[in-house]
Amino acid sequence: MTRTRTPGISRRSSLALMGAGAISVAAPWVARAQAKTIKIGMPTILSGRVAQLGTSSRNAVMLEVDKVNAAGGLAGRQIEMVIRDSKGQPQEAARVARELVNTDGCEWLIDGEASSGSFAVHEVARDLGVLCVHTCSEASSLTADPKQHIPNAFRCVRQGIHDSIVGGSYAAAIAKTKGLKKWATCSPDYAYGRDTTGEFTLYLKRFAPDVELISESWPKLFQPDYTEVVTKILQAKPQALYSCLWGGDLTSYIDQANIYAMFGQMEVFAVNMADYTALTVVKNLPKGIHSGNRYIKTFPATPENAAWGDAYKAKYNEYPTNWSWQNATAVMFLAEAAKKANSTDGKKIAEVLAGLTIKCPFGADGTVTMRGDDHTLVGYAIGWGTTIPQEPYVPEVKAGDWKTIFELEAEWKKSKGYT
Amino acid sequence: MDLDALAGCLSSSACLVTQTTSGLIIGMLLFLVAVGLTLIFGVLKIVNFSHGAFYMFGAYFAMTAYQLTGSFALAMFAGAAGTAVLGLIFERVFMSRVYGADVLMQLLVCYAFVLIFDDVVRLIWGPEFKSMGMPAAFQVMPLFIAGGVVPPYYLLLIGVALVAAIVLGIGLSRSRIGKVIRAAAHNPGMVSALGINTGLIYGGVFALGGMLAGLAGALAAPVRSLTPGMGFSVLIESFIVTVIGGMGSIVGALVGALLLGLIRSFGSLGFPLFTEGLMYLFMVIVLVSKPTGLFGKEAA
């Protein structure tokens, strides 16, 4: 006797289908791994006060993605970027990141968030196990703190501690030459401002022990008026001033300090000055402000860097930002890793990325490395110089020494209990 | 807390001059924004939550006019006149429809326009921050008065704001139009019954309020960066001023703004980590001791 099958789907098939459905709901990137194009999700800030930086991140990613696609894609798969606005809100960044993976089927994430949002996206990457490259957060603890470490996340960004070491040693050398002993600081009152200023003064005092901090000002983020801060600093009569104000806050501060002739009365060290977003906006840029390099096409002074800056400007009619070069570098890393792994599998890419060195226009020696032990970018061009009011804005940049950076960074990690 | 620095400043004429003028500058700009807010509330009984947008438009209009003409005077005129027209249109087309409505509805309409105006600025001028730049005439060394530092541009700013305060004060108390406006604030039904077009008065008051905020934005444009949404932080401080001074009182707005300016200026020396908190603390003290504000009138 033969068993007759009832029409429709058998119980076994139903179970198999339900199982597959459950898997694709729980881990949709597995189910879609064989799609012809590879979708990469990117939450970033496309509205609000920091929109310009998010837009410049998107622009840089697209500039590089177009090149990768024209050259055949990632292991034969064309890249499709899915870029969403997080409005700069951490909870929104996390929601968008999760949605990009679970609903849109993105296999990797490029996290174009500022520090607060990055930590939120990092937790999503930890939860979903998806490959994630942070491209904007400079907060050192994101990769320095071993509690944050996950095998599938990388940071392709300059780091606050690196900037502080280079800035502190540069400022100390000038302090010794010019006899600048009395210092004041003026930085935005939130985590980035407090941490960066603390680390800068730590290394300034280490390299120039007789420096004395006589005044501190902590204006709130996005404060429109700095008059009381400017006059307070004038009263304190410091010989030098450090500030990590940035963007529109920095340009407002410069305009308001300018009419008090403040820049003639002290040496000013503003780590975020040498970024085109600020340099091209300030109408009366004082000569001789000391600044760290953010992105300028003349440092590193190589044809590759200049060509990249010009290509970006030709396409978008504005100069790139600090976030731009970091995002472009992330795509370069991913493309090289896919080539080496001959795969787009997130785990294989992560294995190749750890410790990978690539040729890059933004490298101090023409290359940059994704350090293996803490998954963070090293070897990028980092330095300080003084500004002039017209192009090239920072004619000479004194490059930081990566050997010293590594030594002091290791010491700093130890002092924080990270190693 | 650094009371030594504060005491040292109070005993030094140079520091006193610098910090007092610094307080006046902050206060007078704040007054221009807050007085429009208080005027609109006094006559129309509307808390104009979108008032900061007029400050923002004033700055952008001034910057554009300055870029096109190179004239600082025209830039100021464009900032003030442009926002006056915008205020009139905004009141006639939108706000006039919600006069009798629930307060929540009025707030919602205003808040909707905060977002719409920010996006309009983003569409026209772009999302990135901009700078107007200081006119060449004011790119001079600051004045030294009794050892204190006073930038000439800030003297102009204080002067313009003072003139605006005097003209407004005299205009409202002495002129016929001023009397009609005050009458409309007390009893619009009676004013209307006397054959006066109250709609025109309401539109005019909104335009005047917008113009004053626009003028503040235009005056601030050479020294503050311009971004979509820049009106919001000014709006919050303006609300503090009007609460301290008393909603609807012009003298209250002036006194409140100056007090706030001086608190910020001297507070940054004595209480560097609590300057913002001092403003709110002062507001709380005023509210507890006199809930209607320093110059506010008790409800009849």
Describe this structure in words.
The complex is a heterodimer of chains A (about 425) and B (about 300). Chain A is built from 15 helices and 16 strands. The longest helix of chain A has 20 residues, at about 50-70. By secondary structure, chain A is of the alpha/beta class. In chain A, strand 1 (about 40-45), helix 3 and strand 2 form a beta-alpha-beta unit. Chain A is globular. In chain A, helix 4 runs parallel beside helix 5, helix 7 (about 160-180) packs across helix 15 and helix 13 (about 320-340) crosses helix 14 (about 345-355). In chain A, strands 2-1-3-4-5 form a 5-stranded parallel beta sheet, sandwiched between helices. Chain B is an all-alpha fold and about 300 residues long. In chain B, about 75% of the residues lie in helices and about 0% in strands. Chain B has 12 helices and 2 strands, in the order αααααββααααααα. Chain B has helices at about 5-10, 15-45, 50-70, 70-95, 105-125, 150-175, 175-185, 190-195, 200-220, 230-245, 250-270, 275-290; strands spanning about 145, 150. Chain B has a two-stranded antiparallel sheet with strand order 1-2. Chain B is globular and about 60 Å long. The interface between A and B is large, with 38 and 47 residues.
